[in-house]
Amino acid sequence: MSDTPDSVVHTYIQTHRETFLDDLAEWLRIPSVSAQPDHDADVRRSAHWLAAKLRETGFPVTEVWDTPGAPAVFAEWPSADPDAPTVLVYGHHDVQPAARADGWLTDPFEPVVRDGRIYARGAADDKGQVFFHTLGVRAHLAATGRTTPAVHLKLLVEGEEESGSPHFRALTERHAHRLAADAVIVSDTGMWSEDTPTVCTGMRGLVECEIDLRGPDQDIHSGSFGGAVPNPATVAARLAAALHDEDERVTVPGFYDGVADLSAAERALIAELPFDESEWLRTAKSHATLGEAGYSTLERVWARPTAEVNGIGGGYQGPGGKTVIPSSAVLKLSFRLVAGQRPESVERSVREWAGARVPAGIRHKITFAGATRPCLTPLDHPALQSVARSMGRAFGRPVGFTREGGSGPAADLQDVLGAPVLFLGISVPSDGWHAPNEKVDVDLLLKGVETTAYLWGDLATALR
Amino acid sequence: MSDTPDSVVHTYIQTHRETFLDDLAEWLRIPSVSAQPDHDADVRRSAHWLAAKLRETGFPVTEVWDTPGAPAVFAEWPSADPDAPTVLVYGHHDVQPAARADGWLTDPFEPVVRDGRIYARGAADDKGQVFFHTLGVRAHLAATGRTTPAVHLKLLVEGEEESGSPHFRALTERHAHRLAADAVIVSDTGMWSEDTPTVCTGMRGLVECEIDLRGPDQDIHSGSFGGAVPNPATVAARLAAALHDEDERVTVPGFYDGVADLSAAERALIAELPFDESEWLRTAKSHATLGEAGYSTLERVWARPTAEVNGIGGGYQGPGGKTVIPSSAVLKLSFRLVAGQRPESVERSVREWAGARVPAGIRHKITFAGATRPCLTPLDHPALQSVARSMGRAFGRPVGFTREGGSGPAADLQDVLGAPVLFLGISVPSDGWHAPNEKVDVDLLLKGVETTAYLWGDLATALR
């Protein structure tokens, strides 16, 4: 598929490995914590550090894009081949908060290497996985003898991902023409395990709502009035309980409209993964599985739409008892969506479903938060095949396919740019994202470098 | 039925009315707030004041009974007739907290008379309704020419009713032989309205429980795990929702075992009361009625057992959203019981019902608080007829019959002493129990005096 000699890539990476790791360590020392205002200057410093490093790498265009919050970095390296496809890499340069007191064995902003792993905040999420693109594109050039990449390469590295990306969609809309691409590579995920390289094919979407219920004008005596007036806490509970049938299927009419069911091929691929339920339960800190009848645990979290109660509250919750009928109650729900579902349709369905279930005497208000669309790239999409092929070549074995149960700004890129979103990540579940002692495995990081060294040439052919 | 000349009673009451009201005002000035430790001395002072006043009234035995909390007052006036039945009057001398700042027009502990009503904390609940027994028994003696009451008369006036009567049951058990009676008159309730004197025939019982549910060891990500593990907030909601069927009947198996259904006669008596639903809803501060199919609102709150959600909580309840599967949830339920139901049976049924509905992976703990038994005196009980007759004589019209939806320590007296419990109250719903500007109508208070002036002679015959 690609004519890049693997041995040249290997040699190039080995030659530049120390400089690459030293540079990454320098970046990791910048505590670019977007959630903490006292790190605002650090987040800016991180953006400018990255822009300079990308220029040094060879990107002829590097810009720091301001937002009402933290800045993003944009870089572009056009291919000399005018017919080359355009690829946009997405990542982020901000990190989660971290402090020694949280349980870090060493300073989270002073990277150390132990047992072949770099320990530092952002090592895996996401600086390491952004940074492998710098050495990767150089290796691609070295191995192919090119002076420009085989694809028009763009990078967008935002600075607010760990704060919920509040300005990301607006940023992408404002710069849509600069960001235009034939494919988006999200470089902010992981793979199944060290022994099982995988490519993620999609993420679930998200609809969130809060249902406020008001009954009596104040808490009233459950002896004097109990059994004779509607109780908003009971109504909240009845709504939450009515969300699912006995097969744990969501009962909201129209909820499943458009859902793309799993193909036999994809079910087979999911079934091939070395899934250990008790290990999964340990990760979930849970004590049993429960979900939609007819689907496996992985199918449930990756490929099925769900409804969850994120919060419920009403009446007295303190110690002991209080015999009241509460004046109000609240129910916070979230719905995870899969390909084929539209957030606006789900919102309408939920609104109608809830409204029809609130009895006379209870006033209700339903409020939706910003929704996230699902994204899914079909298994036979040439760009997805290209990512899988390049990763398999780097790892020396065929890769599996996963999905991600969560939701993220990647879907905004798919939506705004109208391009397929692909996921390339070499992090493993034990890397401790958002936790103390976050790490990344150096060998896996270099497999990321190697994957991209093959990927641009492969994609140039695949997307031609 | 009774040979007490009404005119003598009227004259006696008119003659002593001013002294009676002055004495009551003196008592009302003592802020005997049992819930506030800085009023402990006032509660003790109130007990001793009452004991002295009962001695002055003529009770040969007056005692202040200590408890681990506030003291109770016991008084006894044996009848010279050794075959006379024994009657125990129950009331309380402690009051709810009150402060000008709560919306009182005048000092809550400086009684004032406006428009024929005494405004003060405790005027109706319960000092006024305890105090009418002092003038009542004197009027009884004056009108009958007796020197001792026609019944062996006992009074028990506790000091912790507004604090949940934590030591009341132990007090009654310790003094069961002193309190032994053929009938108990609870003098701590009210009647339908000024124009509709009524006698209460019973109170509902109470079983309270808290169900604690634990799922994941900590809140977990609803994207990564949603739809695949049991959610304790959902389980809490499902329990609460499963409490009732679509007819709003409680579904807990065995819950209705033993329930004495309303007789046609009692339903007719309830239907005769001048019930105005919109006025009732205003009192309930509610905007619609909802309850067990086949019963009226009054039947639902007075004569039907119910289940209510007093509190439910789990997961995120703050502003905005948080996409978690919560680690735990709590459900606080109360069940009101009617005659024929046993708290211990209901507790067992609820425990089994809940246990069977918690899925694998969720640990649950169910905790019951102290229960209260229901009490009900049959309409044809001679003592109830005697109370109704005496009250009708004082008010110059036949009285109706009500029940009380709430629960109270009266049931303990029925249980410990094995005597029927009767309710005699002249307070009206607008008297503002527990609210600012509590009041009692002087004319109604004197009707209370007059009722007891007839009652002891009537009961002596009725219970003979």
TrEMBL record, chains A, B:
Keywords: Hydrolase, Metal-binding, Protease
Cell inner membrane recorded as keyword: no
Regions that span the bilayer: none
Keyword Protease belongs to the record: yes
Protein's name in the database: Dipeptidase
Domain Peptidase M20 dimerisation intervals: 202-358
